[in-house]
Amino acid sequence: MPSRLLFVIILLTGLVILFCTACLQAGDKTEASHPKKAVSDPGSVSALPLTVIHPRQNPFTNEKAALGRLLFYDPILSGDKDVSCASCHHPEFGYAENIDLSIGVGGVGLSSSRYFRHADIVPPTKRNSQSILNTAFNGIDINGDYDPEKAPMFWDLRATSLEDQSLHPIRQFEEMRGTAVKEKEVLNTIISRLGAIPVYRTLFKSVFGSDTSITSTNLAKAIACFERTLIANQSRFDLYMRGQSAALSSSEKEGFTLFMNAGCARCHSGPMFSDFKVHIMGAPDADKRKDIDSGYHNSFAFRTPSLRNLRFTWPYMHSGKITNLENVLTFYEDLRGKPLKTKYVPEEQLDSLAKQVRIEFKDIPRIVEFLNTLNDAGYDHSIPESVPSKLPVGGNIKLKK
């Protein structure tokens, strides 16, 4: 090879190496000055299971569920015999009700039509009534694992199973106890009442096998057994996640993608669209009570509610202060830079996951479309024609003409 040609090749090779090295160094500097932001886990969601796990200590029987249904609708469980579990958890409203704060003892009417017979004697309940639908799955994770004996309940996690939860409203002054019975006496009073009713004596003995079966423990087991039958797991979203792509429209699928990309599923995760943890969100406060609701351990944190069946269970948030889904999503959009809706939560205490939510106003209609695919109206709407106490079914829920 001529020496001149060899020299040219060596020179060109050296220039190429220098050029590539300079490019790599420039690239390194660009990467260093603008590092890629780490994207946190967006969360994941899935379909509800087709079957329910029952506690080992409270196995399912049809007879027990039937007894629980009667108890659920019987106002004999309330101090003044005017309120039942169904007063605030009615099938017409997705086993919740369309009112911000429930009216328990002393109330007349149903849902948004309910009012106090005598004002200023008993206050409304502390928080918005949550739906009982699908609470059989409370605590479920993305893998479908859950323990019904440790299921988180209430906005502040103060109960850990449906059995535990079922007795709390009976003890609570403004919910079912009222002024007629003291808290420490109320369960014994209720058990005594049930024991005085022949039909209940027969039913409890048949279900639990003893003449002494009417106890607070068995009362809780029967109500919880019934509540685990209140399942709504055939929504269009469930069908879609089980492989039926046509169950959702293209715009609903787009809304699903926007929901996930916005980071909503970091808290509203799993089959129930809830991580069952408490978060400080700065939601608006209730204004119908004199006391301040400070939530979980006085931290102003509240449990992530499920997003299922929202069509039936408005209004929203622990205070019931937001009346439609568009405004719920606007609330989350406003968390970026706008003042919080409560004066009790400093901005620096806002949950870190809430700060990461990125909902754009233009995307709200599509996300709402997706949320409506989580509705399932095919749940049990049946109501007993009568209850063993002979009291009005459901309590005082019919307006007087």
Topology of this structure?
Layout: H1 3-33, H2 62-73, E1 107-108, E2 115-116, H3 162-171, H4 173-177, H5 183-195, H6 198-208, H7 216-227, H8 236-241, H9 250-261, E3 278-279, E4 302-303, H10 325-334, H11 352-356, H12 364-371
Antiparallel strand pairs: 1-2, 3-4
Structure description:
The chain has 401 residues and is an all-alpha fold. The chain contains twelve helices and four strands, in the order H-H-E-E-H-H-H-H-H-H-H-E-E-H-H-H. The model is unreliable at 1-39 (pLDDT under 50). The protein is globular, with a radius of gyration of 28 Å. Helix 9 (250-261) packs across helix 12. A two-stranded antiparallel sheet has the order 1-2. It has a two-stranded antiparallel sheet with strand order 3-4.
Summarize the structure.
This protein is mainly α and 401 residues long. The chain is built from twelve helices and four strands, in the order ααββαααααααββααα. The chain is globular and about 60 Å long.
What descriptors fit this protein?
mainly alpha, disordered N terminus, two-stranded antiparallel ribbon, 2% strand, 401 residues
The major β-sheet equals: 2 strands, antiparallel
H/I helix tally: 12
Radius of gyration: 28 Å
Order of strands in the sheet with most strands: 1-2
Strand fraction band? under 5%
Instruction: List the uncertain runs.
Output: 1-39
Helical residue percent?
A: 25-40%
Order of helices and strands: HHEEHHHHHHHEEHHH
Query: What is the number of E strands?
Result: 4
Distance between the termini: 113 Å
Q: Structural class from helices and strands?
A: mainly alpha
Mean pLDDT: 91
Shape label = globular
